[in-house]
Design brief:
2 domains, 26 strands, 4-stranded antiparallel sheet
Length: 444
């Protein structure tokens, strides 16, 4: 007969009750570590699935109640080659437990073509050393994840300082980055979209759908916004321009494009040109013949993000979240350079109404604006000084970093939540497409 000491030695974590095991596994990182725990046993797999489901529900409720706890992550600074450089107008996407960041520009108009990865488990930046045909240094491009590859398209770059009087350059290059082999490849197609920047893109099945953006306006120094839809097929590696319905959104750039399912995508906000900011919402239904646009009627529009055009939106369950400044801070973003510069190429002949300029001047400087730089001031998110200094030294800023009228500002931010479930259901009923299974999946 074994002694009590021997019985204690035989006890393992699998002898714990399900509730205790679930609590322990809830402390594990939801990325790599969670996937590793799933492979231990069937019991652990069921427990991890339960933990993930509870985490999603908690996040969803927190977003709806605006009770989200923000934390500033400061990765360890191990040298200039291990920390990403401060930048804005970069492209970013999530793929297999990593966040990938490409390109962007600095306040001194330095352009990047580097690729960085943020390990979401260890919260450390990694710069992979890649080979192949590198993309050009640029900002305002789009990057999407497809089948363990990154799809980079479009973008814009500053002209070199010498010789003088050179124009900015737009790109229509399409590069595919193979994550496994760390290789860049450029794709050549007989039909290509025009060079563009500030556009939006999402992956739907085997297609990448691109909408809007800034394009050349026919004159050498003028840009114009677009409402064209382009489609890139990953099986044929060819571009096509699908036929769309007569009713369509206004031309725009700087909008948010949200994936709903393989047959539907959503467009929110955007900027049409000088002093023409949009806050409308559209759904594009992808069919085999004519792609159908449908404008959605938005309730409670008074709670919409005031600067929807320059703040990316993110889908959480059946809601879309926009992180923006509050209505009281919206007017302070305006300046005499026109609020149309989330994409750096500025349309010409911009102006601001005199009453807006007078109101801005009467407000005085914003609090905590101490860091003077070439493009304006940098404020805070309502934190104390120590918290502000920590976020300033971080490689990832904790506030709004859109370029508006030549000013770079961080102000008190608010979250706006947009419900998409009923809008998508009504759109499918109107178009006669979709299925009950996909509608239920959207609500999950």
């Amino acid at each position: 007969m074994s002694s009590p000491e021997e019985n204690l030695r035989k006890k393992t974590i699998d002898d714990l009750p399900d509730e205790i095991l679930e609590y322990i596994l809830s402390l594990v990182s939801p990325y790599k570590d969670s996937e590793s725990c799933r492979e231990v046993s069937r019991r652990w797999c069921r427990t991890i699935n339960s933990v993930n489901q509870h985490s999603k529900c908690d996040l969803y409720r927190s977003v709806l109640n605006s009770s989200v706890l923000w934390q500033c992550i400061v990765p360890p600074n191990l040298g200039p080659t291990t920390t990403i450089t401060k930048r804005y107008s970069h492209a970013a996407c999530y793929c297999d437990n990593f966040m990938y960041v490409f390109g962007g520009c600095t306040l001194r108009c330095t352009m990047f073509n580097d690729l960085w990865t943020l390990d979401l488990s260890s919260r450390k930046w990694i710069r992979p050393y890649s080979t192949g045909c590198y993309p050009s240094p640029k900002a305002c491009a789009t990057i999407c994840c497809y089948n363990k590859s990154l799809i980079l398209f479009g973008g814009w770059t500053h002209p070199p300082p010498y010789p003088l009087h050179q124009i900015q350059r737009l790109f229509n290059e399409l590069h595919i980055y193979d994550i496994t082999s760390n290789t860049w490849n450029i794709i050549h197609s007989p039909v290509t979209p025009p060079p563009m920047a500030g556009h939006s893109a999402t992956i739907h099945g085997n297609n990448m759908v691109v909408f809007g953006g800034l394009q050349w306006g026919g004159s050498l120094f003028l840009y114009s916004s677009s409402n064209d839809v382009w489609c890139f097929n990953f099986e044929t590696l060819c571009w096509s321009k699908p036929e769309t319905s007569e009713e369509k959104p206004k031309t725009r750039y700087g909008q948010s494009q949200i994936y709903l399912d393989d047959e539907n995508m959503m467009i929110m906000g955007g900027c049409q040109g000088p002093n023409s900011i949009l806050d409308d919402v559209w759904i594009l239904t992808i069919t085999k013949s004519v792609w159908v646009w449908k404008q959605l009627k938005v309730n409670n529009s008074q709670w919409a993000a005031p600067l929807l055009w320059c703040h990316p939106a993110c889908r959480v369950g059946d809601v879309v979240v926009v992180f923006s400044c509050g209505p009281s801070q919206a007017l302070s973003h305006y300046s005499s350079c026109s609020p149309v510069r989330t994409s750096p190429p500025p349309p010409q002949d911009a102006s601001i109404p005199p009453e807006v300029v007078a109101r801005q001047a009467s407000q005085g400087p914003l609090p905590n604006e101490k860091d003077v730089n070439v493009n304006g001031q940098r404020g805070s998110l309502g934190k104390n000084k120590s918290s502000l200094d920590a976020s300033a030294s971080s490689s990832s800023s904790s506030g709004y970093r859109g370029t508006i009228g030549g000013c770079l500002r961080e102000q008190l931010m608010e979250m706006s939540v947009f419900q998409v479930r009923m809008c998508l259901i009504q759109c499918r009923r109107a178009n006669g497409v979709g299925s009950r299974r996909r509608t239920a999946a959207l609500g999950g």
